[in-house]
Each structure stands twice: as structure tokens, then as C-alpha cells.
Amino acid sequence: MNKLPNCPECNSEYTYEDGNLLVCPECAHEWSLIAEIENVETEKVVKDANGTALQDGDAVTVIKDLKVKGSSSNLKIGTKVKSIRLVEGDHDIDCKIDGFGAMKLKSEFVKKA
């Protein structure tokens, strides 16, 4: 048996299906089952090299020397990056690095500081 999600209004665990809707018997809130499934599928968790979940505003440390396109210098291992922002795409971290400026990084090359 599939576990139905708790009510988003009152957090009751006694929700039930009524056609395409989910219904809470305690507060009478109704919401779409399709919207609930889409919300679960669209939430992407970005993880660092160690598997720790990252959030906007976190500080991370670079774990490998990285070549920077358009620059003669490399981004050195141990470089600390403050106030990251998570974005969609292959390079899922948007940040500013002292000495380099705005840059996008892959989460697999950083660890949470």
C-alpha cells in the first residue's frame, strides 16, 4: 500500500484519495494528487562530493584544482567560496570567487565547509 502524504494545511496523517483528489478528514482540505506527484518529482537535491545536501547561502570548499576557461591561472584546491546559489543545469552552483569573479561550479568538485 502506498503511503499518502500528510495534509499540507494541518499535517494530518489521515488523508485519503477521492478520485484525483486527496482529502483531509480533519480540516476538510482538498488538493490534487497530480500536483502532489509533480512537487515530489521537481524537487532536486544538490549534493556535494561527500553526499551532503547543499542549500542557497552555504559556504563550500573546492576539493580539486580546476582549470578556468579564459584565464591563465587555476582555481586551487582548498579555495573557500561563500554564499553559493543553486541553479538548474550541469554547473549547478553559481557564486563569486575572490580573484576570479562570477563563476559556475559543478557540485561534484566542492564540499560543504
From TrEMBL:
Record Pfam families: YjdM, Zn_Ribbon_YjdM
Domain Protein YjdM N-terminal residues, every copy: 4-32
Coiled coil regions in record: none
Entries under InterPro entries matching the protein: YjdM, YjdM_C, YjdM_N
Record-annotated Protein YjdM C-terminal domain positions: 46-113
Top-level taxonomic group: Bacteria
Family: Belongs to the YjdM family.
Protein name: Alkylphosphonate uptake protein
